[in-house]
Amino acid sequence: MLANAVTPPALPRVLILTPVKDAARWLPGYFSLLNKLTYPARLISLGMLESDSQDGTWKIASAHIERANRHFRRARIWKTDFDYRIPRGKARYADAIQADRRSILARSRNHLLFHALDDEEWVLWLDSDVVDFPPDLIERLLAAGRDIVQPHCVLDYGGPTFDRNGWRDRGALHLDDLRHEGTFAELHSVGGTVLWIRADLHRDGLIFPPFYYGQASQYARSAQGEIETEGLGMMALDMGYAMWGMPHLEVRHRRG
Q1: What is the pLDDT of residue 1?
Q2: pLDDT tens digits, one per residue of 138-188
Q3: Among candidates 99, 45, 52, 51, which has minimal Cα distance to 68?
Q4: Residue 188 zone, left/alpha/beta (φ > 0; ψ -120 to 50; rest)
């Protein structure tokens, strides 16, 4: 080797985390998308937490994880039941159940994070019902050079924002309102459908609050603060970290 040769920096390790519940029908497509990623599989670890499913998700996910463990750096699944079901007759997004539902989502994310995070430099939170994203998603998120990044989750490319938990100005602006700002748009809250976080932020205490957090924050939408991913947003701001959306890096969510 020449004396002045420069060794290229090693690519970072990435952990993809996905909590699942009654997700059996989405898992084949989810793992198919993972297999199409162009980032080196030897640097990608997978972690999944299954909770309270009634459709065979645990068995199907476990089989996929076993196969993925032969392809990726590491792939593991855990089970933690929280004994929560959406009350009969209530819609998933009904206001009356959001505190309880989002609290369980936050707890499931935190359980998964504490089980799975090892020596990775980055965490990619990815919901199982995302049905399309660019194969170079990880490379594009790494190239962003920012600690917390949310791609733009839509139902149709170029269409309205689907994951509206990512916002600015107390929920007045979402990523579809911010396309004119270019590659990056600063956010005051994030959604968790697809979310990129430097792993050391989690190690430093950044979690998904299972309770309302940020009551005193100037960015919170209400006096009670925010919960789950929006609560993480309030906590990130309190820790001194900015959050960024990428309005033109679109990922597509299932319908219905």
Answers
A1: 46
A2: 999 999 999 999 999 999 999 999 999 999 999 999 999 999 999 999 999
A3: 45
A4: alpha
192, two tokens: 């968790």
CATH (domain of 150): 3.90.550.10
What domain count does the chain have?
1
- For residues 79 and 171, give the distance between their C-alpha atoms in angstroms, rounded to a whole number: 34
Determine, yes or no, domain membership for 67. Answer: yes
Cite the beta strand spans of the chain per DSSP E. Answer: 14-20, 44-50, 74-79, 122-126, 130-132, 148-154, 185-187, 194-198, 243-253
What 3-state DSSP class applies to 226? strand
C-alpha torsion 9→112→79→228, nearest 10: -150
- pTM score, whole prediction: 0.94
CA 242 to chain CA centroid, Å, is: 16
**Cβ atoms 233, 221 nearer than 8 A:** no
Q: Is residue 1 part of a domain?
A: no
Where in the sequence is the domain holding 102, given as residue range(s)?
A: 14-253
* Locus of tokens 């750096």: 73
For 25-81, how does the pLDDT look when each residue is reduced to its tens digit (9 = 90+)?
999 999 999 999 999 999 999 999 999 999 999 999 999 999 999 999 999 999 999
Helices and strands: H and E segment counts in the chain:
6, 9
Residue 249 included in any domain: yes
Q: Which of 93-97, 101-105, 230-234 has the lowest mean pLDDT?
A: 93-97
